[in-house]
Amino acid sequence: MHASTTPFDSRKQRVRRALRRNTSGRPRLSVHRSSKHIYAQVIDDVAGHTLAAASSLEKDLKSKLKTGADKAAAAAVGKLLAERAVKAGVTSVVFDRGGFRFHGRVKALADGAREGGLSF
User: Fold this and answer.
1) Do the Cβ atoms of 82 and 115 come closer than 8 Å?
2) Which of 33, 41, 56, 91 is least enclosed, having the fewest CB within 10 Å?
3) Distance CA 41, CA 16 (A)
4) What is the tens place of the pLDDT at every residue in 87-119?
5) Which residues, including other chains, have CB under 8 Å from residue 101's CB and lie 6 or more apart?
6) How far apart are CA 84 and CA 97, in angstroms?
7) Domains detected in the chain
8) Tell me, what's the pLDDT at 101?
9) Block means of pLDDT (10 residues each) for the chain, length 120 residues?
């Protein structure tokens, strides 16, 4: 292991490794949570392309939200991402939580995406 590898990076790699084994050709829904915003994208790892993306920074979402750093924002981003993914022809994904716990905003985003029509 690298000397500069943080516990977060180790968790992220462990989650990625587990996903790679269980993906069975499905795209990956990747989540990034910062202190002020939340970002998500659906990635086709075989082709190396992003199929759909959404974040709390987008104009139409930003005007509706109080802040980009709460569960309401995460759920809205999840729903928007799911709509875009379904439009791009993706209905089934694997959820990549990165090094984040499946809790709070990350869970809210996942629930929003399921509500929007994605299955995982």
Assistant:
1) yes
2) 91
3) 15
4) 999 999 999 999 999 999 999 999 999 999 999
5) none
6) 19
7) 7-115 (3.30.420.100)
8) 96
9) 80 94 93 97 95 96 94 97 97 96 98 97
Strand duo 28-33 + 49-55: pairing: unpaired
- Residue 67 has which token pair? 């802040």
User: What is the secondary structure of 18-77 as a DSSP string?
Assistant: HHHHH-TT--EEEEEE-SS-EEEEEEETTTTEEEEEEETTSHHHHHH-S-SSSHHHHHHH
Phi-psi region of 7 (alpha: psi -120 to 50; beta: other; left: phi over 0): alpha
Two tokens at 82? 């799911």
Place of tokens 């809210």: 108
What is the distance between the alpha carbons of residues 58 and 38, in angstroms, rounded to a whole number?
11
Place of tokens 């998500």: 40
Calpha distance 38→24 (Å, rounded): 27
